[in-house]
Amino acid sequence: MASKQGPSGPYALLFVTMVLWGSAFSSSKSVVDHVPHTVAALMRFGGGAFALLLAVRVSGGRRRPEVAARHGWRAALAGVLGVFAYNAFFFWGLSLAPSLDAGILIPVMSPVLTSAFLLVVRRERASAARVAGLGTGLAGAVVFFLGTGGTSSGGGDSTRLAGDALFLLSAVCWAAYTLAGPRVLAGIEPLRATTYATCAGAVLLAVIAVPDLPKVRWGELPTGVWLNAAYLAVCAAAVANLLYYRGIAAVGPASASLMMFLVPVVNTVCATVFMGESFDRVQGAGALLLMAGAVLSLHTRRSTA
Questions:
Q1: Within the chain, how many helices (H) and strands (E) appear?
Q2: Local structure of residue 67 (DSSP, 8 states)
Q3: Using one digit for the tens of pLDDT, what is the confidence trace for 237-263?
Q4: 85-107 burial by CB neighbour count: b if 16+ within 10 A, else e?
Q5: What pLDDT does residue 50 have?
Q6: Mean of the per-residue pLDDT values of the chain
Q7: CA-to-CA distance for 190 and 139, rounded, in angstroms?
């Protein structure tokens, strides 16, 4: 399963991916503060689709073997789930709750949900420790949601709770997208697979953004919004998604999803330093339970591999 670069090669790519994604939560929040959430999602992945199409062109895509239609459609359908549905929920949630919540719930719950699915379908072995880890993670999510009422940042209590619920739906979408990765990559290189998925998702994001586009005063947007949008499109969308698919191809969906545990660390630093966000002690306890459950699942997976 290791790449020719050695076992550390794919994980180095995934590490860079997680740093880009970790910083993207607060960057996305800064864009959502100035434009409707549907437009913010389109700016990120519309720009990301353009960057990937350019990359395919520059890499000599026309000289590469033709991709079978079924492989292209499979990648596009994955984009409906991992780009369109994920980001529709994610950016909607950002309009209601702090980016700090997203950076805790999504990257920690995604691997927990991925692992739970693999156990249910018996693609991985169940053990008492694994089940305990998943249970601890789910308990942490419950505690985190209960603590939503204890903070005022990001809007009213019910508003923040609704945003966190949307982040949880994003985590479900991302877990499914990760599980679909190996099938999507069968018969198609990661760059093209990522491009097809991103373009398909961007088209659907454009459809739901159309009613909100006239509401944006484009000429009055601060320079910082454009800089964040460019960063999100090129780095957090195009580059990060490509590296993630390469990581899945090398180490598989389970191990790739576990790298998501790095995201909360990066996100917490960015959200507190740049956005001034915070959560209370109850949410902090929930976050610790989430991480403990995730670490336990990781340890038992490797010990039984």
A1: 13, 0
A2: P
A3: 888 878 887 887 787 776 776 677 778
A4: bbbbbbbbbbbbbbbbbbbbbbb
A5: 92
A6: 80
A7: 36
SS3 for 154-171 is CCCHHHHHHHHHHHHHHH
Tokens of 8: 């550390």
pLDDT average, residue stretch 257-272? 78
pLDDT (tens digit per residue) in 118-130: 777 766 665 666 6
Give dist(CA 42, CA 117) in Å, integer: 30
Q: Return the residue matching tokens 């990359």.
A: 55
For the chain, give percent helix, strand, coil, nearest 5: 85, 0, 15
User: How far is CA 214 from each of CA 36, 133, 210, 225, 253, rounded to the nearest angstrom?
Assistant: 10, 48, 8, 17, 40
| Cα→Cα distances 211→215, 284, 300, Å | 8, 38, 48
Q: What is the pLDDT of residues 171-226, one digit of tens each?
A: 999 888 888 877 777 778 888 888 899 999 999 999 999 999 999 999 999 999 99
Encoding tokens for residue 2?
Answer: 């290791």
CA distance 35 to 305: 46
Q: Which two tokens stand for residue 299?
A: 């340890």
How is residue 236 annotated by DSSP?
I
Looking at residue 9, its amino acid is G
Alpha helices by DSSP H, listed for 121-185, are 128-146, 157-184
